[in-house]
Amino acid sequence: MKALLRLTLPLLMLAVLTGCQSVTSASADHLRGTGDLGLIIERATGSVLVIDHSEYEILGRVEGLGDLSHASVVYSRDARYGYVFGRDGGLTKVDLLTQTIVKRVIQSGNSIGGAISQDGRYVAVSNYEPGGVNIFDSRTLENVLTLPATYTNASGEQDQSKTVGLVDAPGNQFVFSLFEAGEIWTVDMVSQPPAVSRHPAGKQPYDALITPDGRYYIAGLFGEDGLSMMDLWAPEQGVRSILPDYGKGEQRLPVYKMPHLEGWAIADGHAFVPAVGRHEVLVATMNDWSMVQRIPVQGQPVFVMASPDNRQIWVSFSHPDNDVVQVIDAQTREIVRSLEPGKSVLHMEFTPRGEEVWVSSRDSDRITVYSTRTLEEVATLPARKPSGIFFTSRAHALGL
Known about the structure:
four-stranded antiparallel beta sheet
């Protein structure tokens, strides 16, 4: 009997080990990362597509997100969850791996984007109605802070201002602009309670961006020429005007769509800026923020976006020229290609290392993928009235 056991025991152990490896392998086959995933907004149907940009594959559709016109997305630090900001005041937490809604709250009557804090603990939402900013625990979506953004209006009464250009900033801060109040506020989420600082910002800031290094916050002004810039390394110096002479004495065209400053391009020591009401991309040197060039383009630019290597600037346009995307060489500042991805181009998103760019065409119900090397089309995907495209690589970048 002992001799039989000596012979069979190794075989039994081998069988058990082989079985364990099979189970482990089977489990591993079902694991996947999230680094090459993303969400595409389908604005007309209140849904989002979960996509794999390595395989050009649609993994699933998540429905029930409400009004997604002008919707945007930020991601959790682990890039598993997307926080979708809807126009109806909805804030929805989406699990990209299970393709389900984790939680959804209606936090206002009309919102216009949001941000996630540097440490990933807080999600902030910018609101038009009733105004102000609401801040939530990113894990539970429980409200932790409400900032009404009150100011004294022209009648001497207390009022709430629309808030725009909300971004995250180093030091675990949020920064945003008040449209009617003409102010820029910073909120320090490390202090208890959170500390708010107010700074005059010019007339009617309508959108803003933060530079990729998180140093400069720049707001576009609808009520006057020029832009307002705040150096977050020296906030005590307040806000100063840059490009102050731009537009004076010139006749603007009707503005069909306000350009998105969050789509500004910073490349080769210069900022490439969409002009308001003009068929131009402006170029400003970051040495002193003076304008050095105007690049004529085919229409009124909406998004002016630099590829991750900063070599190309991709420009989309407002109606009626929104079927075309133009590509500018950042070094020569010349247009090198005009592309026609489809009807009503609304958004562009580069893959993390910039070898491809995805372009949404709302009225063609299509996503078109281009190689940034050849500028040729490499793939298309169907989508229902697609607008914003947001890849999970945004989880690890400031201001996105």
